[in-house]
Amino acid sequence: MTSNGTTVLRVAGRPVGRYVTRPELPARLSPRPYLHPVTTLAGTAVTELSPADHAHHLGVGVAVPDVEGFNFWGGRTYVRDRGPTELGNHGAQRHVAFQLRDPDGFVQELRWVAAGGELLRERRTVAATELTDRAWALDLTFSLTNVTGSPLSIGSPATNGRPGAAYGGFFWRARKEPSAPEVFTAGADGEEKVHGRPADWLALRGGTWTLVFAGATERTRRDPWFVRTGEYPGVGSSLAHDERVPLPPGDTVVRRVVTVVADGRLDRDAAAALVRKAVNP
């Protein structure tokens, strides 16, 4: 490990991702661990870190824009009737310990802290698995537990009055190319048709690569997808889509997303087949 706690993920001996445990970032970016770069087995990078359009997009990770009013996403906070607003309300995710760390994954404990106190304790499990000689799967589970003595709730810009912006939870900032990537599910094509809707899986297809995202639990599959292709390439889950998610003291919210990382431009049948293999090995 390096000074910032970088761990290398490997599949069949090949490095496919770097996990930065203790990033040195300004408070405005809501410092948190992230995976970047994540690559295909052929070595094509499929993530971006702090791009010019959104400096707070940090590869692959878990980010929530509103935990009881604190910003664990980074950047401006959407305030009802005011819009995006610069506030000094940023939180940070701090590494506590690895319960397990192997070349193909790890189990990590994190503290979500803001205003000098701990709000959430997280257990994060990440595993990398080979699927074929051209595809592998990144399996990420996060469990967030309210460790305060008071009720908390998780929100999003959407629950705060900004329609269509229910981001928060798992998020993958993909690489930006000259042409916007294509996005599709089993039954729909295009950002307008897939954004804000649940689907068993969703594919983002670039010039020489494809990412296929799948909720790996029944509860995760109920969360609509947050999708951007035109403005920037990114896919995430929507923990708080229509209303805030209550989290009483001691309660836990759990989500699991498996992402197929493939070389080449997969069609629907190939994407579906790899998802089946990744989620039900």
Task: Give a verbal description of the structure.
The chain is mainly β and about 280 residues long. The chain is about 5% helix and about 45% strand. It is built from three helices and 20 strands. It has an eight-stranded antiparallel sheet with strand order 8-9-10-11-20-16-15-14. Strands 4, 5, 12, 13, 17, 18 and 19 form a seven-stranded antiparallel sheet that branches.
Give me a quick take on this structure.
This protein is mainly β.
Features:
mainly beta; 281 residues; single chain; 7-stranded antiparallel sheet; 3 helices; 8-stranded antiparallel sheet; 7% helix
Write the layout of secondary structure elements.
Blueprint: E1 6-11, E2 14-20, E3 34-38, E4 60-67, E5 70-72, E6 77-79, E7 83-85, E8 92-102, E9 105-114, E10 117-132, E11 135-146, E12 152-155, E13 169-173, E14 182-185, H1 191-194, E15 201-205, E16 209-215, H2 218-221, E17 225-228, E18 234-237, E19 245-247, E20 252-263, H3 268-279
Antiparallel strand pairs: 1-2, 2-3, 4-5, 4-12, 4-13, 6-7, 8-9, 9-10, 10-11, 11-20, 12-19, 13-18, 14-15, 15-16, 16-20, 17-18
